[in-house]
Amino acid sequence: MRAYDVILKKRNGEKLTKEEIEFMVNGYVTGEIPDYQMAAFLMAVYFRHMDAEERAILTEVMANSGDKIDLSSIPGIKIDKHSTGGVGDKTTLVVGPIVASLGVPVAKMSGRALGHTGGTIDKLESIPGFRTSLSEEEFFENVRKIGIAVVGQTANLVPADKKIYALRDATATVDEVSLIAASIMSKKLAGGADGYVLDVKVGSGAFMKTLEQATELAQAMVGIAKSHGKKAVAVLTNMDVPLGKMVGNSLEVLEAIETLKGNGPEDFTELCLNLSAWMCHLA
């Protein structure tokens, strides 16, 4: 099999097989396929897209490229939450404790800043002395003992996504639904949860600017989850204005604490309760 032939096939709008997708992804991770051929492949996908089966295969191959977390030793149904990101989005800091207090175990790996928005890990690390790098034993013990743990992603979790995303960022192929969905869901599958609540932001402050784009991404991610036997629901939420009143890592932590005390902004409180309800429903 040659990378040239796989690129040509997708450039011509044909459907790729599992073997062809595995060849491209695994070959790129190992260095056998150079940047310029992977860039051409990504551009072919950008213009010709992938169908639901191709997306599911791409996600699976990427998820299997590195470490996978086994949460089976933690009792109960583990539900993860993912947000596509927006200004003032600090929902994990509120939703996690709410859901954990209701008996649903929250074993969550979160990311850092993406684009103009701070990540959950960045926000937590604005708390003096807070540690987000835990051993696997500490991570599991915290979930068993207090019902919740939030940590940064391990270095070898989905290395295919790290490498492919860097190339997408440099080749103007970030905003293609199949590639976005596979990037997000490969990390979710590797994280080991039983189901996912997907908060897809739409509006001027989000990656998805229109309702049509956000709906397409939401449907793609839910489809990928279900094709791998996982529960999933997507919620489309407004990002034409910042979420809540505080923007900035430490300020958002303070607002999250006030929200947990019942003193949060109405829009932020409503969204957190909505996401929490869906997580409990799936569990």
From TrEMBL:
Record-linked InterPro entries: Glycosyl_Trfase_fam3 (IPR000312), Glycosyl_Trfase_fam3_N_dom (IPR017459), Glycosyl_Trfase_fam3_N_dom_sf (IPR036320), Nuc_phospho_transferase (IPR035902), Pyrmidine_PPas_bac/euk (IPR018090), Pyrmidine_PPase_CS (IPR017872), Thymidine/pyrmidine_PPase (IPR000053)
Protein keywords: Glycosyltransferase, Transferase
Glycosyl transferase family domain span: 78-268
Keyword Glycosyltransferase part of the UniProt annotation: yes
Pfam families for the chain: Glycos_trans_3N, Glycos_transf_3
EC number(s) reported in the record: 2.4.2.4
Official protein name in the record: Thymidine phosphorylase
